[in-house]
Write a structure and sequence with these properties.
- The longest helix is centred in the middle third of the chain and has 18 residues.
- This protein is an alpha/beta fold.
- The chain is globular, with a radius of gyration of 19 Å.
- The chain folds into two domains: 210 residues, Rossmann fold (3-Layer(aba) Sandwich); 100 residues, 3-Layer(aba) Sandwich (Rossmann fold), CATH 3.40.50.1100.
- It is built from eleven helices and ten strands.
- Helix content is 40%, strand content 15%.
- Strands 1-2-10-7-8-9 form a six-stranded mixed β-sheet. A four-stranded parallel β-sheet has the order 5-4-3-6, sandwiched between helices.
- Bound molecules: pyridoxal-5'-phosphate.
- The site of pyridoxal-5'-phosphate has 18 residues, from α3 and α7.
């Protein structure tokens, strides 16, 4: 019976077009942004969601009768919800109060049901609470499949086979790859694929203050997508040369700069990575290196936070002037 489902997921994954690679004007760098927000459901998470789903269906771990359950603060849930809907599968995302309103509304519309946790965990985040709830649901629901995006190697494989292959097909040389880290899937897959093609490539992992991924102290984080309150197992597979940690104020300034200078209205992780690139090359005066980064999602879902001057001024009062880039004169 699931041969129809296998056929559908195969043709769905084969029909996804590559995302654009946009050259950005920069004084010192040959800078390229891979616009992952051009994916079907709007983020880089399409890559891992579809590949994980595809492999689980092909291995008979997911059938027409399965219910998928996953903990996600946004993009992975949106991607899974979209692909599950297109394949006729049931899906229950487990979310938390950090999920922004448009994302929650979308998930409530398209998913079978939404489960929301409200208890902060011992690190001040919600991840551990969400994961506890996932385990409860797995025990309660029959034929339940948990993709486990933090440890599923198919999530990293997606970026090795898809995103990474697209970059290698397009560019004959890459000197630096900057990647924001959440589950570690993107950096694990991309670093492996790109280092095979470009042996001199340097891979820079970008994390945010308050995340524990690279041994930092846990702290309050307000920008979803980047950083984590656990060390994700997928990170072991990543080939990382250097780590940069940016503050949330820097991430917001990076988002504004990306928007004002290049017209790219992107989410918090893209701004974090762009801020890291600018800091890394601030004093650089050598030959132009070729630098690649991903814009993992669009800025629309951050309109109430990152792009809202009032929210920024209230949330980072001591830094607001550095964070907000002034607008052109009103007409
Ligand atoms: C917007 C955004 N950027 C970056 C990441 C990090 O990617 P990864 O989880 O593969 O490390 C995520 C992950 O959810 C994300 O949603």
């Amino acid at each position: 019976m699931s041969s129809g489902l296998k056929q559908r997921v195969r043709s769905l994954s084969a029909s996804m077009p590559p995302t654009p690679l946009m050259p950005l004007h920069d004084e010192r760098l040959d800078l390229f942004a891979k616009l992952e927000f051009s994916n079907f459901s709007g983020s880089a998470k399409d890559r891992s969601a579809l590949w994980i789903l595809r492999q689980a269906i092909l291995r008979d771990q997911v059938t027409e009768n399965s219910v998928l359950v996953e903990s996600s603060s946004g993009n992975f849930a949106i991607a899974l919800a979209s692909f599950c809907a297109s394949l006729g599968l049931r899906f229950v995302p487990v979310i938390d109060p950090n999920v922004n309103r448009p994302t929650e509304n979308f998930l409530r519309t398209i998913s079978t049901r939404v489960d929301k946790v409200h208890d902060l965990d011992d690190t001040g985040g919600y991840l551990k609470s969400r994961l506890r709830r996932v385990q409860q649901l797995r025990a309660e629901l029959a034929d339940c499949y948990w993709p486990n995006q933090y440890a599923n190697v198919d999530g990293a494989d997606a970026h090795y086979r898809l995103t990474g292959a697209e970059l290698c097909d397009t560019l004959d040389r890459v000197d630096y790859l900057f990647v924001g880290v959440g589950t570690g899937g993107t950096i694990a897959g991309l670093s492996r694929r790109l280092k095979e093609a470009y042996p001199y490539l340097r891979v820079i992992a970008v994390d945010v203050a308050g995340s524990v991924i690279f041994g930092g102290a846990p702290g309050r984080r307000r920008i979803p997508g980047i950083g984590s309150s656990i060390v994700p197992p997928l990170l072991e597979r990543a080939l990382i040369d250097d780590v940069m940690v940016v503050s949330e104020a820097e991430s917001i300034a990076g988002c504004n700069l990306l928007w004002r200078r290049h017209g790219i209205f992107a989410g918090g992780s893209s701004g974090s990575v762009y801020a890291a690139i600018r800091r890394h090359f601030a004093d650089y005066r050598g030959p132009r290196p070729r630098v690649v980064f991903l814009c993992a999602d669009r800025g629309n879902a951050y309109a109430d936070t990152v792009y809202n001057p009032q929210w920024v001024a209230e949330t980072y009062p001591e830094r607001a002037d550095n964070v907000l880039i002034s607008s052109p004169a009103p007409v």
